[in-house]
Specification:
The chain folds into two domains: 204 residues, no CATH class; 296 residues, no CATH class. The protein contains nine helices and 28 strands.
Length: 519
């Protein structure tokens, strides 16, 4: 569970690339025995346009990473995918090999990087993804400029500041101007013939340097209502029958106080900075600039404009903000693996100062780094089987404790209120499948905390920096020979109900519970 140094990371990626099946240049793909039936191949050219790479010990630092995502399982913020369907890695030595003398490949152990005013370079190489089942795919990618990418660990499996992002994008020029990318959709049609299938000539462009680090965070403060919430050193517990005390537009201050809120601070606590900054964890903390979390507006309908239509699903008056906050139910048997079928998500509410101030943002642009963000936990769980066309949003109560409807019904909606049908339609558009609102107790279990930027850069707690592997001896401060960051082992737990009778009458929907294993 150790994060590799850049050179070790390159060796790991090279081994991973060599182990990927289907890397030979053939027109007929014969799948390996452990794949069921014929499979497909996607390939093309990746073009990098950006800063000259760093070099060290006679090698180029970093690698280009090309990832193929099933469109039903896109990564956040668009979807619920947790991993790519396939990936290819082009090592920097290969991608930049044609630059020759323009690269300083001195083998003296010194890291050499370009000056900020050095001219950019443009280079190309080929990539290939296989084996892939029939389906529709998007190709995304980035150049790992500092050589710290490792697909096997959540603390190192996404791009960081300075990496150069892109993909097979239809509107590349607009993206460079700040627009949201539209990724090309490539289909391997079913049924794939016995000889396999191949789609070639897919152009991938990497040209957008990322200005932000991943949104590394820890829970700095728990703002809990008077009932329904408990806390320990490693978890915040919300009852499965949690009920908001007040939820009405007439009392926004009371509505906010009724929410469980978490203040998520950038980086790690001061007591952990020294351990976090050095190998093997190597988080970008403790230096300059200090870690921050950046608030930004979210283009919900992806029309390229920030306006009044870009609001949260449950209120037309609250703008949707980055970082997106999501609480994802974890597998009962693995502390770091998200439950996949069904995926269960509690969508957090990103709050700018307070709800009143958030509502007053209107359509104003926003790009503001801060030391922390405030996140409200909605007592509502979205339950989705990744490949099924329908899902449910289970809300713990139909009303608040004072009898106010959490979501107005059809009669109030017809009078102009934002209600059940509006929420169902908004979530249906967001997740590309029909969502139905139901009422019942929330699915019990452990939930990971996630912050997600519009670039797809994300951070999840708990993670490997705070959780020891079974093979490591665990203590409060160490996992065997390495430090353990306790701040990176915090979860939200949906616990037993305060009123078991209520949950007996309003049980968790079957769509939110895992199917029993096959005999």
């Amino acid at each position: 569970m150790l994060r590799p140094t850049p050179r070790t990371g390159l060796s790991l990626l090279g081994a991973l690339l060599a182990a990927l099946p289907g890397c030979e240049a053939v027109d007929v793909f014969i799948p390996l025995p452990d794949h069921s039936g014929p499979a497909g191949v996607l390939d093309g050219t990746v073009t990098y346009a950006g800063p000259r790479p760093c070099t060290k010990d006679g090698h180029v630092v970093g690698a280009a990473v090309v990832l193929g995502f099933d469109t039903r399982l896109l990564p956040p913020p668009e979807g619920l995918g947790t991993s790519a369907a396939s990936l290819d890695v082009i090592l920097g030595d290969e991608l930049f090999g044609g630059l020759g003398a323009a690269l300083d490949l001195t083998s003296d152990g010194v890291l050499r990087c370009p000056e900020p005013d050095d001219p950019p370079v443009t280079v190309s190489a080929t990539w290939r993804l296989s084996p892939l089942p029939a389906g529709t795919y998007q190709i995304r990618g980035f150049y790992d400029h500092d050589g710290d990418f490792d697909p096997t660990f959540s603390i190192a499996n996404l791009p960081s500041r300075g990496d150069v992002a892109g993909g097979a994008i239809e509107n590349a020029t607009e993206v460079l101007g700040g627009a949201a990318p539209r990724y090309r959709e490539i289909t391997l049609a079913a049924p794939i013939p016995a000889t396999g299938a191949r789609v070639s000539g897919i152009a991938v462009t990497l040209g957008l340097p990322l200005p932000l680090e991943r949104p590394i965070f820890h829970v700095a403060e728990v703002l809990a209502p008077a009932s329904g919430v408990g806390q320990s050193s490693s978890e915040v517990v919300m009852a499965s029958d949690f009920q908001l005390e007040t939820f009405t537009l007439a009392d926004p201050v009371g509505a906010e106080a009724s929410l469980l809120r978490l203040r998520l601070a950038a980086g790690v606590p001061d007591r952990e900075v020294a351990s976090a900054a050095k190998p093997p964890i190597s988080l970008p903390v403790g230096g300059e600039p200090a870690p921050t979390l950046t608030y930004a507006r979210q283009d919900v309908n992806r029309d390229g404009a920030i306006d009044a239509d870009d609001h949260v699903p449950d209120s037309a008056q609250i703008p949707a903000l980055f970082p997106i906050s999501v609480f994802a139910k974890l597998d009962d048997h693995d502390p770091l693996v998200r439950q996949a079928a069904p995926a269960v998500l509690l969508q957090g509410l990103t709050i700018y100062d307070d709800l009143v101030t958030t509502a007053m943002l209107g359509a104003a642009p926003l790009d503001e780094p801060r030391e922390s963000v405030l996140v409200g936990v909605r007592p509502a769980a979205l339950c989705l089987h990744p490949t099924e066309p329908k899902g449910v949003l289970v809300i713990s109560h139909e009303t608040d404790a004072a009898g106010n409807a959490i979501l107005p019904g059809p009669e109030d909606e017809d009078a102009g209120a934002w209600g059940v049908r509006d929420v169902e339609e908004a979530l249906t558009r967001q997740f590309g499948r029909t969502i139905e609102v139901v009422y019942g107790c929330l699915p019990e279990g452990r939930y990971a905390l996630n912050l997600i930027y519009g670039t797809g850069q994300a951070w999840t707690v708990p993670n490997e920096a705070g959780v020891c592997a079974p093979s490591e001896s665990a203590s409060p401060d160490t996992c065997g020979a390495r430090p353990r960051l306790a701040s990176q082992d915090m979860v939200l737990r949906i616990g037993p109900p305060d009123d078991p009778t209520y949950c007996a009458q309003h049980p968790t929907p079957a769509a939110c519970t895992p199917s029993p294993p096959s005999p």
